[in-house]
Amino acid sequence: xxxxxxxxxxxxxxxxxxxxxxxxxxxxxxxxxxxxxxxxxxxxxxxxxxxxxxxxxxxxxxxxxxxxxxxxxxxxxxxxxxxxxxxxxxxxxxxxxxxxxxxxxxxxxxxxxxxxxxxxxxxxxxxxxxxxxxxxxxxxxxxxxxxxxxxxxxxxxxxxxxxxxxxxxxxxxxxxxxxxxxxxxxxxxxxxxxxxxxxxxxxxxxxxxxxxxxxxxxxxxxxxxxxxxxxxxxxxxxxxxxxxxxxxxxxxxxxxxxxxxxxxxxxxxxxxxxxxxxxxxxxxxxxxxxxxxxxxxxxxxxxxxxxxxxxxxxxxxxxxxxxxxxxxxxxxxxxxxxxxxxxxxxxxxxxxxxxxxxxxxxxxx
Length: 365
Prior knowledge:
- By secondary structure, this protein is α/β, with parallel strands linked by helices.
- Helices cover 23% and strands 31% of the residues.
């Protein structure tokens, strides 16, 4: 079946449908990863977005039960050059096509993804519609795009609705970390548990009154989708927690913490999405290859004087990490938990937790 892709600037692509069928609107973006489509599909940071994969062959190793980053697909639509109709891998449980159908997600293949990616790079991420409905005219699609707006409550849609508890993967818990779930990936929880942490996860609209902060060694603000400035409840919570205990941030959580410290954020032209983004630690001059997925960034000029810039993106000099020794706040824009991507930056979890342990020891003295 033919599927049409219409961008808000009027550009029209035609491809073939796989997965589910119908009509879906979203923000079209691209990801440069060569592998990891299962993690990308289930990453809550992609909620509301239609993802284009730049690597030409997708689906060749199917879908397994190990690599989910959440309980279901979070992307709104999926665009590829070619999807494998004969996937093969020893861990495979189902095919990409069947998984999209199961989750009622539309896919399009046989698309010139190089041209689509260049369009996004030149003109920026934009509104997009995918449809298999042949009765919809070009005018109707453009009218629908004009009326569509990205959901402002997207974080609440992907956040947990109840408090969740996780014990460390082995042994006694050495630290108790509270997590504000803005769209958290399972990989973050897994890394905390592997480092001996008891993890308690709270909804995105949690207030200071909902937290018994005496039980925590630190609070982490997670990754998630959308504009950080629309997460006012999380920003207010970060302001209320500042100075009371260590705060950590990843991706959207990094932006939330920067805003709570008096910084500013802005939307990138087409974002950073992929598993090969070089980031330099300005303190050690060490370069990490990192996994990234964000459309907003912290303004470098807005960083307060009592906050240190710790990491920058080697490609475009955007802010990738900050620390405030005064308020014991530390955050990174990239994903140290990988999934998918290189494992260079997983050491950051241990470095964070070691600093928290030293702070506890100093307090006892």
